[in-house]
């Protein structure tokens, strides 16, 4: 196959590979500029109490609207930031901007500000500096630590469990809440879970989607496990009213998904919480 292509074919592939590398390099440069000029913005998706269906928190979700390429998903630019050494700066931006936004919502009168904001943290941010960075962001915007919840994916925790446990404990000592994101997809040992100082498990949306095909076994097991460990659960990716009802029956503490509310800008969220947030404390 390779031989029949001859030398010319290899050159074409070679050129393609080089063009891709150049492309990626340019994207990394542009991402660095976007982080430096705070062109990475955040959307906020409400999270609801299952029992009262009132919003109790928001999750901050990073967005990059590229001037030529249009919106680039965080599923693309977060890994790019991780491999190019930009994740530290991106993480600081997300922390600071979330705290700034919470403080701004607090200052607006007539708006019931979201009680809490969840911030996603990459595996590479999970080192001894993170607790200080979180403390500094809270301090800068004069927020109580209970206003922030840190979401860490299960797979990030499993990269270096001993070190992760130390960092989580320091975060916990600060007074921020901790949640394990995408739970059920990361092959963590269930015994190990008992030793992690976390508050909440986020049931991965793949298990929520399975509910609609009549397969609630995993969602049900994760929720039961969390309850027996005294952890709360957030079911993510709730797309239908039927899924929400079923998750209520299974005992999920909180619900998040497009059928309840989509991610929205900080400005829109202020207006949204003015309407929906009155009964949330
Ligand atoms: P995640 O933390 O699990 O966030 C939930 C994702 O599910 C978000 O995608 C959200 O928009 C999406 N989602 C919410 N409700 C529904 C629904 O009903 N159906 C479906 N199909 N999807 C729903 P998004 O914003 O594209 O983010 C993707 C992932 O990128 C996040 O997954 C998170 O792992 C990562 N990410 C986003 N922002 C940040 C950030 O600031 N820092 C880090 N380290 N990672 C981030
Ligand atoms: Mg998350
Ligand atoms: Mg998640
Ligand atoms: Mg997820």
Automatic annotation (TrEMBL):
Instruction: State the source organism's domain of life.
Output: Bacteria
According to UniProt, the name of this protein is EAL domain-containing protein
Positions of the EAL domain: 24-277
The organism is Blastococcus goldschmidtiae
């Amino acid at each position: 196959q390779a031989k029949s292509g001859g030398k010319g074919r290899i050159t074409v592939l070679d050129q393609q590979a080089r063009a891709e590398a150049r492309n990626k390099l340019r994207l990394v440069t542009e991402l660095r500029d976007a982080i430096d000029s705070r062109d990475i913005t955040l959307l906020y998706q409400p999270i609801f109490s299952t029992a009262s269906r009132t919003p109790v928190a928001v999750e901050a979700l990073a967005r990059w609207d590229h001037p030529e390429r249009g919106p680039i998903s965080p599923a693309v630019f977060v890994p790019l930031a991780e491999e190019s050494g930009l994740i530290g700066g991106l993480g600081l931006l997300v922390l600071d901007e979330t705290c700034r936004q919470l403080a701004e919502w607090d200052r607006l009168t007539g708006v019931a500000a979201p009680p809490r904001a969840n911030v996603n943290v990459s595996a590479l941010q999970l080192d001894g500096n993170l607790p200080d960075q979180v403390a500094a962001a809270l301090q800068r915007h004069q927020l109580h630590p209970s206003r922030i919840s840190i979401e860490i994916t299960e797979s990030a925790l499993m990269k270096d469990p001993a070190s992760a446990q130390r960092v989580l404990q320091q975060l916990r000592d600060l007074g921020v809440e901790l949640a394990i994101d995408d739970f059920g997809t990361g092959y963590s040992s269930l015994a190990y879970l008992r030793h992690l100082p976390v508050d909440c498990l986020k049931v991965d949306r793949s298990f929520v989607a399975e509910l609609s095909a009549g397969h609630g076994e995993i969602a049900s097991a994760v929720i039961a496990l969390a309850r027996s460990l005294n952890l709360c659960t957030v079911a993510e990716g709730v797309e239908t009213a039927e899924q929400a009802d079923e998750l209520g029956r299974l005992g999920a503490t909180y619900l998040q998904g497009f059928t309840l509310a989509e991610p929205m800008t900080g400005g829109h969220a202020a207006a949204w919480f003015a309407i929906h947030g009155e009964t949330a404390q």
